[in-house]
Amino acid sequence: MPTRVHEFAWPDRVVIGTIGLPGARTFYLQVRAGAQIVSIALEKQQSALLAEKIDEILDQLITIDGNPFSIPTGTPVELVDNDPLEAPEEQFRTGAITLDWDPTTAQVVVEAYPLTDVDTDDDVEPLSEIVAEVPEMLLVRMPVGTARAFAKRTREIVDAGRPMCPLCGYPIDADGHTCTLPEV
Fold this sequence. Notes:
The chain is an alpha/beta fold. It has helices spanning 44-62, 127-132, 144-159, and strands at 4-8, 13-19, 26-33, 36-42, 90-102, 107-114, 136-143.
């Protein structure tokens, strides 16, 4: 079965956003180019790690003599996107995500694959074979400024969740919190 690739080479918009209240939010990676829009669900931790790794790549590239890719140190003001998601229809729930750098176009490349069910038999296929059978994937190429803005917004979205209890370190729900202090 051929893989259906949702490819965005120069997206108009690429953001992480959420639907729902803190504690019950669904995270989406949403990409739009013209009339084409794709939304994939992912976990909060996947969102946070994606932002962290994008910033790490960009920060490493800044250290190259002369900054040949014009990597911004901060988020370009004109690329800040605080708008809500555009009515997300979940294309798939994300399992694996890969992150890469394309020096020929000076773009961060994100590939997202759906969550797959893997049997726990002795005949488990290697990951490369599982990925090859994935019916669809998302491929996004982000220019460096867009990638920096994406990472900043993602960190803000992730941090906008439930506050943490200063005593036990667990999230405090809107309807209250029973603190369970760790044993000493």
